[in-house]
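Hi W.,

Here's what went into the run:
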Amino acid sequence: MFGAIVNSRRRERKLLLYSGVYQFVGILILYLGGFFDKLPSHMWGVVITLGTILAFMLVSVFWQYNGFKADLFLLPITSVLTGTGLVFLLRLEPHYAVRQFFWLLVALAALVVVTTLLRSCQVLSEYQYIYALLGAVLLLLPIFLGVEQGGSRSWLDFQLFQVQTSEFVKILLVLFLAAFLAENRRILSAGSGTLLGVPIPGVRDWGPMVAMWTVALILLVFQRDLGAALIYFCTFLAMVYAATARVFYIIFGLVTFLLGGLSSYFIFHHVRQRVDIWLNPWPYFETSGYQVIQSLFAIGSGGILGTGLGAGKPDLIPAVHTDFIFAAICEEMGLLGGLGIIILFLLFIYRGFKIALQARDDFSALMAAGLTSLTGLQVFIIVAGVIKLLPLTGITMPYISYGGSSLVVNFILLGLLLNVSHRAGLNNEK
Amino acid sequence: MKNNIGKLGCFLVALLIVLIFYLSYVQLETGPRLAAHPKNQRVLEQISITQRGNIYDRNRIPLAETRWVDNHRQRFYPFKNETCHLVGYTSKIYGITGLEAAYSKQLLGLTAAGRFINLVRKIQGKPPAGEDLVLTLDIKLQHLAAELLAETNKPGALVVLDPRTGAVLAAVSQPSFDPNNLEEQWKALINNRDAPLLNRAFQGAYPPGSVMKLITAAGALSAGYTGEEMFHCPGYLMVDGYKLADNGVHGNINIIEAIVVSCNKVFGKLGLDLGKKNFMQTAEKFGFKQDFNLSLEVRPSTISSDRDMDEKELASAAIGQGELLVSPLHMALVSATIANDGVMMQPYLVQEVISPSGQVLYHHKPSVMQRAASSTVCAAIRKAMIASVERGTGKAARIKNVAVAGKTGTAENEHGQPHAWFVAFAPAHQPRVAVAVIIENGGSGGAVAAPIAKRVIIEALR
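Here's what came out:
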């Protein structure tokens, strides 16, 4: 058994090494292109390169001696994504790259903690009301104590750094829903009455839906965080579907979503603005449409192979290092680079769902499916916004965008997913 | 439940696959347009760092070049107003026109080949450079034509073509402007009622007058007339009780002689005999309604009342006095087509596109646009046009030792004196040059336009 672990962790490190070489080449190109000059010291480039590779390797080694039997592909996949993120941050906003590097270390530490302390993840199913309470507090806190950034009021200021609490709520939401649905899914699936032969849910069934709506509305109204509201709601629908398979929930959810979307279009100025820009950004070129048009210019200028790292002009896009980092990737690495990133996320989703399907219990399965859906939806929503397939909602690109909270949360997510995988692996051996 | 999770997984994979397709669409389908969008800062920066390509005449004499003046690039047009309508101008304020605009991508090295060349140059540490254009224009001829037009002191235009290839050897429009310091003249230019910014050679719209009779004659000869049929000219033509006056009483006369003396009666009658449909078809074979695909804007020649032309209008159109509007380029092309035995060559202005390192990236190969008439028909018309210069209305274009074929036109219009037209080609039996001249309100074509054509032909054949 132990030999199998050693073997799979070794393969993991081999993959991590490839990822490290990839990142090293990227940073080398930036060094040759003179992008290090904006750093406080050239040494930071070396520290970031070696530090990242070393940190990922250490996690893998730690797991090996710890007997961690989780999926061996997920960590290399995320390391390529974070590597791409770091390279592009170094290219776009070098001092952010240094910060992001430190956040990455924090995130990897969080990953180690999660995969050590919460390895038997079933324990987590017992605290559903704590998650709900904690989530509510984290959501409400910024409304009273928060600071505004980029148009949404969802940040807590800790002097040295700021925390976007809604990022943490994502995980709490998935944990809560997984626990709640695992416990109640049989009752929810059955429905409590029928109308013309179709099962109709009773008041009890409406409860979670209403609660979810409240959460989304709080986000939308008080924090003006359209993206988070959208993700919460979609993740919720995905998990409810996975747990109950009741099309009623999906239809009801989508209908209310459309109604909500339509009414918020008429009520909220910033929602209407986003939609108008999406339909036709050109009349707003000088104002609100500027960002997405610049994004399209960047993507269009990339072509198939891209301009090459450091040779494009993605810095013309406002907020390129957070929400629009994908446009920068498309300009400098071209269509192939952009597709590569999407394919990496496809692999991530594939592994995630594979883990969910291998899971031993309902809670773990739902949690894994929920966490993977969360990542997939987030990628879909932000990329679709950047390429103007959907209206733009300011959210980060998991593992790639600049943002400490986002990075840490996504590595915690990864840890939880790997814990499920670990238990499934143990299970298979019996 | 596992089943649902599987379905959910497939759904999410499908979502990302949608992204793959849409991203490919954005980057491949709309990408080139976005990359070259005028509001794309990358384009502006490319323009500001690129050494814009030069524009040369056929003998590699520069017509537009980029020079360094006080540490910044300046576009310089050595031949000033003589080439302004063709070459165009590049102004930060008033935009880009002419070939400068039509070939912007090449001049800035933004074509696929240009991008690759500039990539190589970048690696070599050289600044990006655009491609050069070599035009078909002969600047000596262009210069002479501009001078001759200037002497008339009237608006007008002149086009010289090589009938064998369609190459535009000269195209002058008067009045003109100096593209070197546009900003200072701009107000005067746009307030000038003679519209100096307009390229009359390609975009002018004039009644063709008797030049049209060449097309009517071609139609009649193609429809079965031999040219020997005799007509009687009493000095007018009665159509539906309407009297179309002639320039003289020509008595008994055949088609060939009718071209020589430019008899209205005969051609009015031929137009009626041809009928509206046949007449329109002949006109279209000779290039009416076409823009000639010339990279610069050309006004297609029109017969405005073609939907419900009555007999009287048809007869007027047949002698070029109806509601016809033609461009000088088109009339030069009609002349060139007759010279080329009825084969209309595709006119063109750009001979070659050349990379910064001197490689020829594009070379124009002469191509046939359409056949307008048979060589027998054209031979008959040619005979008449030669006679017209030797002893008819076009005597002023006679050149010693060279047979010139020509046709005058004196186009009545509402703005005073008639427009003076002359179209010609020479040497008549082995044509190397075809010309069209128009002087607005110049008077008689034979007296005003023919001498200009003569001097241009001499220079062109030299």
